[in-house]
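note to self: dont lose this again. the chain is below, predicted strucutre after it. 96 aa total, dont forget to put it in the shared folder this time
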Amino acid sequence: MLYEGMTMEQVKDIMGTPCANELSKGVTEWHYCTTGLDADEFVACYFEKGQLIAIKNYTVTSRDVGGSFGSCRKFIKRGTYREPDAVIAIRSRYGD
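---
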């Protein structure tokens, strides 16, 4: 089980290596995914200063990607992806 305040290493011990990661405006974002038949399931983990601050689940359906197929890695940040409010607030501190 993941909870706020965990270190990146603790999350990696539980979830494994993320399939994608990025750093933007002080927030590190890791994505994990499972490829399905009609929908791919994702978990996004957000870290600030090396600690977990938010977790977001989202789904990408074949309809979201125009009927495309393949590894879920191709469809990160599509479908029902939305950043949590806590992440938006942190990133807004850095301005656009």
